[in-house]
C-alpha cells in the first residue's frame, strides 16, 4: 500500500540509487563486509517491489563501479560472483513481475564472460516486458560512459555534435534522465554515477545504511521529491 500522502499522479518517472553503506553495516555488527552486501540484496529487492507498487517506470541502481576494481581482490571476486548469482536467482521473479532488466556499463575484458552472458540472458528474457525498467549499472563510470560515447561519435565520422548526439550515444539511449537520485549512508557525493544524466535531477541523501533501506524509505524520498517540486513550482508558495 502506498502511503496516503503520496500523490500517485506525481510519482517520478525515473529514480536512480547509489546503494552505499553495506561495508559499514557489516562492520557495526562485527561481520565480514560480504555479509553487508548479502543484506543489501534483501534491501534492493524490497525497494524494487516498492518501485513497482509506486508505479515507477524506470529504476536504476549502482551495483559495481569502474572504481570498485581497486577493492581487495577477494572482495572484487565476491562482488562478481554475487552479481552473477543475483541475476540467476532473481531474473525469473523479475520476469514474472513484468520487469524489463537492462545493464549499463563497460562490458570489457575485466568482466568475466560468464557474467556478461548472464546479463545478456536476463536482458533477452525480459526485453518485451512492459512494467518497470530495472537498470543495473555494472562496471559503470560516468566519465567512462562519456568517453565511450565520444569514441563512438568519432568512430561514426560525425562532424557536428549536439547534446542530442551525445545523449544518443550513451549506454542506453532510451533511458530518460533520472528525476531523483538517492544516495544512502550519509555520504554526500555523486561518485561518478550518471554524470551526464543527472544534470537536472533532484538529489536526496539518506543517513540509512543501504542494508536497512526498505520500500518505506523509497516512499519517504518520493514524498520529499514531491514536496520540493511543489515548493519550486509555486511562486506564490514562497511568498516571493
Ligand atoms: C556499496 O557498499 C555497495 C556495493 C559496492 C555493492 C552493492 C550491490 C548490491 C546490493 C547487489 C546489486 C546487484 C545486482 C545484480 C542488482 P560499500 O561496500 O561501499 O559500503 P561502505 O561504504 O560502508 O564500505
Q: Nutshell version of this structure?
A:
It contains seven helices and six strands; from the N terminus they run E-H-H-E-H-E-H-E-H-H-E-E-H. The mean pLDDT is 96.
Task: Give an overview in words.
By secondary structure, the protein is an alpha/beta fold. The chain has a single domain (11-227), classed as Decaprenyl diphosphate synthase-like (Undecaprenyl pyrophosphate synthetase). The chain has seven helices and six strands. The protein has helices at 22-28, 33-54, 73-96, 113-126, 142-156, 163-168, 215-233, and strands at residues 14-18, 58-65, 100-104, 133-140, 180-183, 202-205. The chain has a six-stranded parallel sheet with strand order 3-4-2-1-5-6, with helices on both faces. The longest helix is centred in the middle third of the chain and has 24 residues, at 73-96. 35% of the residues are buried. The model has no long low-confidence stretch (mean pLDDT 96). The structure holds farnesyl diphosphate. The site of farnesyl diphosphate has 17 residues, from helix 1, helix 2, strand 2 and helix 3.
Enumerate the spans where pLDDT stays under 50 for 5 or more consecutive residues: none
Specify the overall morphology: globular
Rounded mean pLDDT is: 96
Query: What's the CATH architecture?
Result: 3-Layer(aba) Sandwich
Hetero groups bound? farnesyl diphosphate
Q: With helices defined by DSSP (H or I, 4 residues minimum), what is the helix count?
A: 7
Total strands: the figure is: 6
What's the N-to-C terminus distance? Answer: 37 Å
